[in-house]
Amino acid sequence: MNKKLFKYLEEKVLFVRKETLKIHKTSSEIRIASCLSDIEIFVVLYYGKILKFKHRNITWKERDMLIVSKGHGAVSLYPILADLGFFDKTELITVCNDGAKFGSIPDCSIPGFETISGSLGHGLGIGCGVALALKKKKINSEVFVVLGDGELFEGSVWEAVMFAQQHHLDNLLLIIDNNKISMLDYCKNTIDLTPLDEKFKVFNWEVRNANGHNVEELHNVLTELKEHKKNKPKVVIADTVKGKGIPKLENDPLCHIRYLTPEEIDKLLGELK
User: Which CATH class, in words, describes the domain spanning 2-271?
Assistant: First the structure.
């Protein structure tokens, strides 16, 4: 059964990669490298049955909540939400058009997005507040936060890390897209936070490392941690490659601000199998 699931997840990864490239073809302003590093994370959360949701009732009281803090990498979530019926697939061709609600950085006017995420470093703090409120209301739901590793330079993130531990938010699960490149350079050249896992352990978080492009590994780790209730917040440090699958972008320290030409995208779409 699991082999079937993992094959299905890999097929969905390919589907989302293609659809994200198609969006970039008509909307060159989206941060394509950042959108390509977190695809497996979103695919496993939604198609792997990790998240509890109802696409026809987006305000369902008992839903799990996903807060995408790295808004510049969230366009790859558009095809998933459209595929699952949160909104019509025709919306995907409007991304970044004048007057369209689908921009390069999503907000909560789009079904499936819980917050505005344009200002980096705030997603974990919001997640902490939501997780604490759910505990107070005795609602058995999980709060997931997807954070970019460059956001870890923000002091507000570490305030939230301490807050989560102080309040024993074991219904909070942070996933770090650890692609090691921020806007203009490798993260280690700005502030070297290695070893990252040890820093979270010092703050008494339950920590797991995972290959962020291996759907089986991600699914197993997220399944385990979702059920892990030991009065500790939880974090998965998902090691990823920025610009995954695009040789021109992979490991380019400036890939965050690069774009692909329509001709390059057509060639890539023909090669992706």
Answer: alpha beta
